[in-house]
Design brief:
This protein is an alpha+beta fold and about 180 residues long. The chain is about 45% helix and about 10% strand. A hairpin with a 2-residue loop joins strand 4 and strand 5 (about 100-105).
């Protein structure tokens, strides 16, 4: 199977499989070349920038992909970029899109943290699931949909506790 924007997709998949299996004979090189002037600059933040406007983000990504050559092991990947550590939003923090990144920091007490859980009706959890399912359908034979970045443990902890609070907590734990 080839992809609309990556005709040698089967070969590329095999090279990735070998790399992940530790059997690649050379590094994977991804080269993205703009074949023509694109009217849209894709920077990966459209799923947050155009929150609840998947049609706009999808149109922008496909415009980018249609005027880009994906050379070597590069491939069209619509990464569900909702910010590093979006797990904090799934646990109740509100994302703030600022200057091409997302911040989740809303300091919580330890008592609040003890009762956190991902709830099915959480807005960001639902948004992630909904766009993943819709993009899966719209991407068939065209591009790959990448998963979101739920974040590393300390990144999420600092979003939930607050950076200063977490640093003090770690210091006090270490001091004991």
């Amino acid at each position: 199977m080839s992809l609309l924007y990556k005709t040698d997709w089967e070969e590329t998949k095999e090279k990735f499989k070998l790399w992940w299996d530790g059997k690649a004979e050379k590094p994977l090189i991804q080269i993205f070349v703009q074949r023509e002037r694109c009217d849209v600059a894709w920077d990966g933040w459209d799923l947050v920038r155009y929150w609840r406007r998947l049609d706009v983000a999808l149109k922008n990504f496909e415009a980018f992909a249609s005027c880009t050559s994906f050379l070597g092991e590069a491939y069209p990947n619509l990464w569900i970029n909702l910010g590093p550590g979006v797990l904090a939003a799934y646990l109740g923090n509100s994302p703030k899109f600022v200057a091409n990144t997302v911040w989740f920091e809303e300091p919580k007490s330890w008592e609040e943290l003890e009762n956190l859980e991902v709830k099915e009706d959480n807005t960001w959890w639902r948004y992630t699931k909904d766009i993943a399912l819709e993009l899966r359908e719209k991407s068939r034979s065209k591009f790959i949909v990448g998963m979101t970045d739920i974040g590393g443990v300390l990144d999420v902890a600092s979003s939930l506790r607050g950076v200063s609070n977490l640093m003090k907590d770690l210091y006090l734990i270490h001091k004991k």
